[in-house]
Amino acid sequence: MKQVCTVIYDSSQFVEFFQSDDHLSLSMLLSSFMAGTKFIEIDDVTLPQCLQQHPSLIDLASFYGAIECVRFLCINDTINLSHFDKIGRTTVHYAAMNGNVQIILLLREFGFDMMHTDEEGRTPLHYVIMRNNLNAIQYLMINFIPSYDPNISQHYAHYAASVGSNFEVIMFISYFFNCVDFEQPDENHISFYEKAIDSENFDFFSFLLDHNIKQITDDKGYLPIHMAAERDLPEFIEALLEKENYKNKDYQNEDEIKDQFPEGNILNSFYESSTFDNFWGQNDLYDFNDISLVHKVDNKGCTPLHIAAQKGSFESALILIQNGADVDAIDNEERTPMHYAAIGGHLAIVELLYDVGADLQIFDVDMKTPANYAYIRGRTCCVRFFSEIGCIEDNEDIILSDYGLGHNHRRKRVSRHFYHVFARERQGIKTNKQSEDEIE
């Protein structure tokens, strides 16, 4: 029978029936429509945004989990298996949003495509992963996904990590495929570590650390410790540093064990062989003979403490300092963490760095100190703090430093006329007056 499509602009009655799964009232309402109407689309801007893509009536019923209404619509031939909404989603996609396995099973009985891909490249499995519905994930994967394809395994594992799926979901996907490479980034060069940090999934992050998954840098040169500092995740930073300390301790134990055996001993030969490296683990997180994580720099020469100071991540900054971070480290622009804290107006971090002895008089490549930047950026609280500790003597020093003269003339007095000339030029006021006795 040829299906005639009717568009409904007010779906409130249908939604009411679906929410209560009242298929009898639904039947009475449908009987009031014109004879021959077999298929209905919904165009209702009052619905949730995910339902504003012209879903069909059965799409709506599946979304709300109304299994009796779905059954009624299927039995009474008010469905269209070839119908897609405006972005290519099928009824199974809408059922997956709800995660009701019974509805998914029912739709399969009536011939719906279980793994159709919409215009955004998502199958129903993507939606149940997004909703952390483990039962629906298990059903779809066991019945419709080949467990031997490494490309599929990487795709779904990365997707689960990207959307912040819980640890149990990620682990099920990993164990189902048994070929997920957690060291391999996705097509955008985003690692599993970065996804765990972005979603603040500490359980998954700990899993990666415990299994010695290698840490790689992103396009900015960030390691996971930089990413955690940027998002102010002290728990993640502590885990990274504890892992580093533990592994360093293991390597110290390695030397102690070797020393226990005289030269020529068969066990000593084993320790000197490549087998010994395998024994201790080839797949290290990083080179432990290299510098500590707290001193690692990104593409701009910034340490994790620079990043924490820039973003105002106080707890992260505190942990980094407690673990030996250099408070006077300079980046490629010769700026210290104090520079970035002052630029951002992060007074708590400015005070923290000052309390642990940070140098306030370091000049960057533009010949500016942290106090200069606080003044230029209008960070009133920081300016007041620098003034109270005697770092800012007067406005003349700050204004001259804006012109690159603060460093070379810091200890020389400036005539009042010279000061006013620079002050007016800062405000865009031209002056033809010649300076008199500019610098004594």
From TrEMBL:
The keyword Repeat applies. Keywords: ANK repeat, Repeat. ANK repeats lie at residues 87-119, 120-141, 300-332, 333-365. The keyword Repeat applies. It comes from the Eukaryota. This is Uncharacterized protein. Pfam families: Ank_2.
